[in-house]
Specification:
single chain; about 40% helix; TIM Barrel; eight-stranded parallel barrel; 28 helices; alpha/beta; Chitobiase, domain 2; Jelly Rolls
Length: about 1100
């Protein structure tokens, strides 16, 4: 089946209403159209180019080898010929005929204005006119503009039938378009994995179709040293992707992998191929960081962190220049990238000198400009030369607004939206968590604000007001990036395409349109990318088998409803097809060892000691079939699809006992990877071990191999290949999606990651208001009372002096008090929580609810959550009690001493308890979240360790702190009630009995005072914190709209629950439990302080 018939059939199945052009096409600026439409089938198969325009080439781009308009027209001729399965020709002509009677496609000069969003003129603009039912005109402001117009026409052809489609081809239709930004780029990390020239050329072709303009080729790097993969740094993988030819001694930086490099002719071919499609290759050679390729050759040039260069060594900079001198003549571009990121901050002067020296040397040597990554270089003596282009990638490394103010040109590669980590995100390494597939939600809903479509001037997802002005002077555009932080064996070459596939289309569209252009339709993006990608000219990265009925039915429907793509039996002629990409089901029978090979990989059944093993071989790495449980293999971790953590139930041992004859079924999609059934029984999958880094959370990740179909050898007896996947025995439905959008699991960075900051600001505001209430003002970072300034110091001298050892004693006493009481109250808390969140138990009293739980789940269920409770309140209790002593003393000092503080004592109690609780809750929150999971979700885990680990791998830091703000709403009122009411109750008792009786209290009587006041405080703490406690328990169980943040869910649930449920449901058990907790804590705290000889706390009670 021809490509024309393929996209026609798929268009009929999908429907034009489900598609949009990428980038979207501006509306027609013509007032006149007719009912007639352009029909390419009835158009002469000739492309005419105006001779006066044919030899034009653009000089305002970055390439040094700009194609002429005729060159671009030749590329267009080849593309449309293949797309429509027709033989189109190209002719130069001196002028055009009357279009109303003409037939063909006409290419020439656009004489109107075309500008970037900053107002500067560009040769990338174009005009497209439908001039008659048999003719179309495309005019370019330059050669590239004309070429981009041909990309638009190809997309219109694909998405239109002669009866109409999404982009009107009505006669009279006219549109003009130009990119908002010049830099519309994508980066591929080829420094941690080798990519073949053919793959790189296909990737350029794909990007060009969506009007991308730059390919950032990151050609040198090393596996991160902090990931712990090797005992010796000299064994850590490093790579340099170009083959030195003139200075052959430089081959030492290749470390034996000369066969995984591009020669000069290879690289020139790549540059010419990319530029023929409007894409300039921007090469990057890293230094002075990420330099293991160099320091393994010359160890004497390294700092103690071995992938950093010692810039003070006399041979370092000459060696770096020696490498650049070899390759600068290869680079047919006006700009190159020298890396220069993640270097030692303490060596800022050395770093700045290096960057400036390299920039000036490169410019003098080759007349090229230099780019670097934005890097924090806190030198107070030196600055980066303004001529250097800064590629911003992370806040804390550079500030985009400041970069522009300093006079640099700027490229937006902010990692929050731009970065992917091929195959596996960085979890649990924090703070960066880069998804394995491009997170399109972050472009369609920038800063997690629904409907805010990103553009290159949008940098800051955290402070929405801190963006660069659209079209700002110096803002070049944007580049997305796919990184191989997991190493060369963690993915195939094609899996890099799956990671970038949607990102290239979306970033290209938004960088082209900018603020002024047409926004994307979020409902059509996914369908449109899936529709276009198999038919983009000069590539087949989807590895579509085009000689079959692949698209005779929509992709994703049941494979049982279509004929096989290939059905072969021994004795029949083998039809070589190359490879079949996502998604597929491959069924094989064999009576002995065999091999299937293709251009991308090979699959073999090989002899082993116990039988046979099944092995994929790709990019020089072997991936044997490994034993994985059905559950682990077929049920995806929603937060980390395809990832199986090391503490799961699977053994991951190599399967070596396959006997023949055998029936083998392999199903493959990008999320599950390649799964295997042997004789109908699920056996496992092909996978790779991924090192977790500093946190040592290792995992096994899926490998998604294309089906090799070019050559067959050995004992294969039959082969059936179907399009689509049915996950047998997964219990989760049939087909899986195409290479996915990243809209779940690790999609949004969410406001939850900033709740700590927000809460801190709230504490700051509260404290400021409290200080102002006391009649204080802040001057030069000192608190001074508005009156009686001299008395402040005098009264402060009456305060006790606490040494660090005193705070250790306060912490120890508070920790013991809290962990003993909360641990002992675990059964009560279990029952209380179930009454709050389990509809079946609402209305039951404590005794009946406890009996119900014990009867259904056993008595041990009443101790669920004991581990996180004991540990959590150990650290929280110590921090809270010690913090209260600390902040109460500080606030008393600020008030002017104990005597003046008496009149403000209630405010001091409130401020000290709230502030202490805030910091204590930072420690408590992860353990409290784990406890709630264990208590409210039966069977969640066996205890603290397994529950904490499960939550860490499934939800990460955001999961632990997703309930932080609701926790504050619970714990701060709890602490305020506990301490403030306790202080008031103690004061009331002492005032009642008088100072003389107070001075003669026995130990038992003093304990009774603590106990009584603790009970009163417990009632207050329970009542004040109960509504938030109810909501937090429900949220941690999963109630509410999970698409919202925890705070929004809390208010949503508050409305749903109503006042009665919030205030009263479960309140009796909570008061009972809280009174015991609070009273017990104060008694134990007082006894422990006395036992260890801790100093008494600050007392500011009013005695009369």
């Amino acid at each position: 089946m021809s490509i024309r018939h393929l996209f026609t059939a798929l268009l009929a199945a999908v429907g034009t209403s489900s598609l949009e052009l990428l980038p979207p096409l501006p509306k027609s600026d013509s007032d006149f159209t007719t009912a007639a439409t352009w029909d390419w089938a009835k158009t002469a198969k000739t492309i005419f180019i105006d001779s006066s325009f044919a030899n034009v080439s653009d000089t305002d781009g970055l390439t040094l080898i700009p194609p002429t308009a005729f060159d671009f027209a030749s590329t267009f001729r080849d593309d449309i010929s293949i797309l429509l399965s027709q033989n189109w020709t190209l002719e130069r002509v001196n002028g055009f005929p009357n279009f109303s009677n003409a037939s063909g496609i006409f290419l020439g000069k656009y004489n109107g204005t075309a500008n970037y969003e900053n107002g500067s003129p560009t040769t990338e603009g174009y005009e497209l006119r439908v001039t008659s039912p048999s003719s179309v005109f495309i005019g370019g402001s330059g050669a590239r503009g004309m070429f981009w117009g041909t990309r638009t026409l190809l997309q219109l052809i694909m998405t239109n039938s002669p009866t109409g489609g999404i982009g009107s081809l009505s006669v009279g239709f006219r549109t003009t378009d130009a990119p908002a930004y010049a830099t519309r780029g994508f980066l591929l990390d080829a420094g941690r994995k080798w990519y073949s020239p053919s793959f790189l050329k296909e990737l350029c072709s794909y990007a060009s179709f969506f009007k991308m303009s730059e390919f950032h080729y990151h050609l040198s790097d090393n596996y991160p040293l902090n990931r712990g993969r090797n005992e010796s740094w000299q064994d850590v993988y490093s790579h340099f992707s170009l083959l030195p030819e003139k200075d052959t001694e430089l081959k030492a930086i290749l470390h034996g992998r000369e066969n995984e490099t591009l020669s000069r002719s290879d690289f020139m071919d790549l540059q010419q191929h990319c530029v023929s499609r409007g894409v300039t290759v921007i090469p990057e050679i890293e230094a002075p960081g990420h330099c293991l390729y160099l320091t393994k050759w010359k160890p004497e040039l390294a700092l103690p962190k071995r992938d950093l260069l010692n810039l003070t060594h006399p041979d370092t900079i000459p060696t770096v220049k020696r490498i650049w001198a070899e390759f600068l003549p290869w680079f047919q571009t006006k700009e190159v990238h020298i890396g220069a990121d993640e270097y030692e901050r303490d060596l800022a002067d050395d770093y700045v000198n290096f960057v400036n020296d390299m920039s000036r040397w490169v410019n003098k040597t080759s007349n090229k400009r230099v780019r670097i990554w934005g890097t924090d270089e806190p030198s107070d003596k030196l600055t980066i030369d303004r001529d250097i282009v800064i590629q911003h990638w992370q806040y804390g490394q550079s500030d985009p607004i400041q970069v522009l103010q300093d006079g640099h040109d700027l490229i937006n590669s902010q990692d929050w939206w731009a970065y992917t980590s091929i195959k596996s995100d960085h979890a649990p390494i924090l703070p960066a968590r880069y998804p394995q597939f491009f997170n399109e939600s972050r472009l369609l809903n920038f800063a997690d604000q629904d409907g805010w479509q990103w553009q290159p001037s949008d940098f800051n997802p955290f402070n929405k007001t801190m963006q660069v002005d659209p079209g700002a002077k110096g803002l070049r555009g944007a580049t997305l990036a796919a990184w191989n932080d997991n190493g060369p064996d963690a993915s195939t070459q094609l899996e890099a395409y799956y990671s970038l596939r949607r990102g290239i289309a979306l970033t290209g569209a938004r960088a082209w349109s900018g603020k002024r252009g047409v926004e994307l339709n979020p409902d059509l993006v996914s369908t449109s990318v899936d529709f276009f990608s198999p038919f983009v000219p000069a590539q087949n990265l989807d590895r579509t088998v085009r000689g079959t009925n692949l698209t005779s039915v929509p992709t994703g429907s049941s494979s049982a409803n279509r004929n096989p793509i290939i059905s072969w039996k021994a004795g029949e002629e083998w039809v070589a097809e190359g490879s079949k990409g996502m998604n597929y089901t491959l069924t094989l029978t064999a009576d002995g060892p065999f091999s299937l090979s293709g251009p991308d990989n090979s699959l073999s059944l090989v002899q082993s000691e116990d039988g046979h093993s099944l092995v994929f071989d790709a990019d020089g790495y072997k991936y044997p079939l490994r034993s994985v449980s059905n559950k682990d293999g077929t049920e995806l971790d929603p937060g980390h699809p395809g990832r199986i953590w090391v503490n799961a139930s699977s053994t991951h041992e190599v399967v070596e006992n396959i006997s023949t004859p055998v029936n083998i079924t392999i199903t493959t999609d990008v999320l599950h990877g390649s799964l295997v059934w042997i004789n109908g029984q699920f056996m496992g999958r092909f996978e790779v071990f991924v090192y977790g880094g500093r946190n040592t959370q290792f995992s096994w990740n899926q490998m998604a191999f294309v089906a090799p179909l070019r050559k067959m050898d050995g004992g294969l007896t039959s082969l059936v290949l179907d399009d689509g996947v049915s996950i047998l025995g997964a219990g989760a439905g049939n087909e899986t999606a195409q290479p996915p959008s990243q809209n779940a699991g690790s999609t949004r960075g969410g406001p939850e990651s900033w709740t700590v900051i927000v809460a801190a600001l709230l504490i700051h505001v509260t404290a400021s208001a409290f200080i102002n209430h006391l009649g204080l003002k802040i001057q030069e970072n000192k608190c001074i009372h508005k009156s009686q300034v001299t008395m402040a110091a005098e009264k402060s001298s009456q305060l006790p002096t606490f040494a660090p050892s005193d705070y250790v004693k306060f912490f120890s006493a508070g920790a013991l008090a809290a962990t003993l009481t909360h641990g002992a109250a675990t059964p009560i808390d279990v029952v209380k929580t179930r009454i709050q969140v389990d509809d079946a138990m609402k209305g039951l009293n404590m005794v009946k609810a406890a009996r119900t739980i014990a009867a259904k789940e056993g008595a041990s269920a009443l101790l669920t959550g004991f581990g996180p409770t004991a540990v959590g309140y150990l650290v929280q209790g110590g921090s809270k009690f010690a913090g209260y002593e600390f902040f109460k003393k500080k606030f008393v000092e600020m008030a002017g001493g104990p005597e003046r503080a008496v009149q403000h004592r209630t405010g001091i109690y409130l401020g000290a308890s709230a502030t202490a609780e805030f910091f204590a809750d930072i420690l408590l929150c992860p353990l409290e979240a784990t406890r709630i999971r264990l208590v409210s979700q039966r069977g969640y885990a066996t205890g603290l360790t397994t529950g904490f680990a499960r939550m860490a791998r499934e939800e990460g830091l955001r999961g632990f702190y997703s309930g932080f703000v609701p926790l504050l709403f619970k714990q701060v009122p709890y602490a305020v009630g506990q301490f403030a009411v306790h202080e008031a109750a103690v004061e009331g008792i002492y005032r009642t009995i008088g100072p003389e009786k107070k001075a003669t209290l026995t130990h038992a009587q003093a304990t009774g005072v603590e106990l009584a006041s603790g009970i009163v405080a417990g009632v207050a703490a329970a009542v004040l914190s109960h509504p938030a406690d109810t909501l937090l328990s429900a949220i941690n169980k999963g109630a509410g709209d999970k698409g919202q943040g925890a705070t929004a869910r809390m208010f949503q649930l508050a409305g749903e629950f109503g006042p009665k449920r919030l205030l009263l449901t479960g309140l009796g058990p909570r008061i009972f439990m809280t009174c015991g907790l609070v009273a017990g804590q104060f008694v134990i705290y007082a006894q422990c302080k006395a036992l260890v000889g801790a100093a008494p706390g600050v007392e500011i009670h009013k005695e009369d």
